Amino acid sequence: MAANGFKSPAPVLPGLGLHSFHNDSPPFAGAATSEQGEPDHISLDPSDQNRFASSSHDDSHLKPELHYQSQHAHLIAPFPNAPINTAHSNQATPTQAQSILNPIPQRMPTFSSDEHLSSSRSRRLVSGYLFGNPPSPVGTKDIPADMAKAVQALQAAKAPAAAAGDAARDSKTTSPRPSPNSEDEGRYPLPTPPIQDRDSPPLSAPYKSYSSPNPNNALALEQSTQALGAVSLNDGPETGAKLNDGGAVMAGSARITGTDTGYDALEGRNDGEADLDLSAPQAEGGGSGAYLRGEAAYEFPRHRLRKTMRDESKIPLVIVACGSFSPPTYLHLRMFEMAKDEIVESQTYEIMAGYYSPVSSYYKKAGLAPANHRVRMCELAVEHTSTWLMVDPWEAGQSEYQRTAVVLDHFDDLLNGGEDGEGGVIMSDGKKRRYKIMLLAGGDLIESFGEPGVWSEPDLHIILGRFGCLIVERAGSDVWAFLLSHDILYHHRRNVIVIKQLIYNDISSTKVRLFVRRGMSIKYLLPNSVIQYIYDNKLYRGKIGAP
Ligand SMILES: Nc1ncnc2c1ncn2[C@@H]1O[C@H](COP(=O)(O)OP(=O)(O)OP(=O)(O)O)[C@@H](O)[C@H]1O
Ligand SMILES: NC(=O)c1ccc[n+]([C@@H]2O[C@H](COP(=O)(O)O)[C@@H](O)[C@H]2O)c1
After folding, report:
1. What atom of ligand 1 comes closest to residue 507's alpha carbon?
2. Using one digit for the tens of pLDDT, what is the confidence trace for 521-541?
3. How far apart are CA 546 and CA 369, in angstroms?
């Protein structure tokens, strides 16, 4: 079998030997192509894992562990109580197993190779970080006129008194943006309506309380917000109810309710997101709730997935974060943005989307709220604040725990598979190119790779070799030392990108849960929409460790 599961063995990149990293770079910076490939016979199928263990492949340094894994693969589970699903879920088993065992299954489209692209690109993925990166082009173009109008109406209603005084300043700060000529296009955002002056009240503050000289402003605001389905405005029960009607069209996303949920304006939980982004594309249909209740079929979220590339000389990349997200915090959101900066800087990949995949309730971890709540909280966290992040409820909705390798394989199927899948990215010449999928994880999660009985070695080869890892440094874990010491990580080091946290953020879900339990403020640690959801659903109030 080919080293990377689908393609021919990855070539050794010229100049990328063990000691050939850029002088400024720590080890392991590299394009996402493993120089050594993987051992043969890596598979998600347990019988194939056995074959892998007994294979004659000359990976003698790995063999003792592999032998151990072959005998104990069926026991490998992250926690003693977590049932391990040795193959796929009901829906996925036959096709996904096939996709691993057969390098190019019939239903898969053929793809042009990405390997050659890597060789011409900067490999300073880690320390080559330049301050002042141009912002990512994602989501900066084509703002519909009605949205632009809505934002302007919002502005007018929000700070009417300040409007005149601020006009001169606004025009100064917004006008000198570079014009979108061909060179700049995609590097700078096209002029967008100013969302909000930083000194203004929050977007969702009750607008009636700011004396608006023109009541039509407020009316226009409400109408346009309803048209957009935005739900961040709230003026107590009456307005909240109206706005929620609008929000309901978006993935069942109504998020703010009335006073019966303990809303207290002084506590400010209903404040809107400071970073509300009205241009964020929204999902249509019933959302994940119906699927998780077993009332609707699973649908892969695609509303923010880019299907074509801006720069076809790059490798199309989808980033997937697996985890508990109980609850999701600003750290979990920042992880993606940190990864984005690193990727933009590397110039090797083009980000096509980012996904959260909350683990199911079968993952026996203290403090894990039920899966439907965690999925919804993740959706709320990204719904109006991001233009490129989505939440995939598939893993959360499975009736058994799904290993991370299986989850990534699910993404591969949906993004690159030919039937229900996207079939890859459509290039301008009509050909398809595979989406590369990488796991985004914190340093602590990566260090758990070394804990006996938590990850199977074949799975690690799949995760690190066939996919790849973006590792966000975490305070308290020495990622570099671990990378050096871990055989499989080292083996696949060119498929691993370590992301330095330039502003350390160590917001912890565990502490957030404790704060809730102790009645302490969690504001500014996670999006207000998520805070509101936690209170509305009375999450994390039980004894420590309970949801
Ligand atoms: N402070 C942090 N720095 C870097 N990565 C982090 C940090 N906190 C969480 N992560 C990463 O976020 C992902 C999802 O985390 P997850 O919700 O499973 O755990 P957690 O945030 O540590 O929560 P808990 O406190 O409940 O254990 C994991 O990959 C984890 O490593
Ligand atoms: N064997 C495995 O696939 C394996 C082991 C441990 C954790 N995980 C995943 O890591 C993520 C985060 O786990 P923790 O919250 O325990 O750090 C979860 O999505 C979990 O499923 C996977």
Report:
1. 1
2. 999 999 999 999 999 999 999
3. 8
